[in-house]
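Example protein was shown:

_____
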Amino acid sequence: MPRKTKSMFFNTTPVCLQQLVWQFAYGMCCPAKPLYDLMFVLDKQKNIPPIFLTFKVPTKELFPNGWCQEHNTFWPLYNPNPYKKGNPYFPAVGVCQDFLVWSTIADRFLELVSMSTLREMKTYRAVLHRNFVRQLNSRVEEWNRAMTSIWCFPQLSEPSNFPKITDCCPNTFSKANEWLITTVCQQLSECQYCSLTVLPVSL
């Protein structure tokens, strides 16, 4: 008989008891299905390149009436982005949905793709930029659309498809560009489509 683990016990815990645990830990940020909320956040951490996500996000506890651009003055009070790999879990239902969770660093990465690579991909840089703007204005559960329209190209996960940055052609951003290319390519090689695409709902 297989030994039962803590996760197996929690799977069989009544939803009402799960909700009590979440209410105790996160206050007003309680999902109707706590375990689904947990798996939704984990799904994003496992499959989305962390460099594509902002470091912090505002919570509904801070802005119960909704978030707007002017609220960025409270940036130091924001929570670590729960969808970013390495950050602690926080209920998805507690994150302000009007806030853009995507970092703009990916746009810089697309600027560095070589022309020969674009020809091999049979696309144009302007098309990639347009698709990225769409991603920038989308929610985290729409990652699969961005994956299909931009990040599924295998050429984008290979550093050799980007211009060589050598000491003979130095510029102010050469080292930063080199780090960016290496980091994004590595993370893209590990990213996948998300399996949970329906945003959790709160009580």
